[in-house]
User: What shape does this take?
Amino acid sequence: MTTLRDADTFTGPQVHRTAFAPRHEFAGQRVAIIGSGAAAARLLPGIAAEAARVTVFQTEAVWVLPRLPAPAATTLRRAPQGLLRLAARVNLFVQVRDSWLRHRLTPDDTAGVAVHNSYYRALRQPHCTLVTWPIARLVPLGVRTVDGIEHRVDAIVYADDAGHVVRTVARPGRLHPSAELMKEIA
Assistant: This one.
């Protein structure tokens, strides 16, 4: 993942992460996580456990299924696309009762499938927010989205997701519209 436009104007720390290791570096802070649903799923639960406020700037939604025992995980990789999508829709509906949040977490048919047990639970916490508006730029005190809202944060974590999507469930090579916009902005 590349750094966003005007990144040098943000006054707080910016880190790139592929995994979260608890260090209490975000204790009491307002933290922005910028990345796809697959990357945010890995980072959010750990960061939310120590941060005062977490805002996830989702660049691309992803289907999420719960982690299964090893034999079932192998079957997951071979399951038909329709079955994976159906299982992921049921998982989303069961875990996220808020229809607006569920709508924003629902990916299009080009999305991959990530495996995580506590992403949806972490997002439902009162101090966690999901933002799906594309990012316009970084500003000295936070992140400004294209709708003109400035989200104030103390630290930014870029959630890198290389290799963490279990399987792509649709036509390869086509980007989600928000990912295309992010490429234009960066």
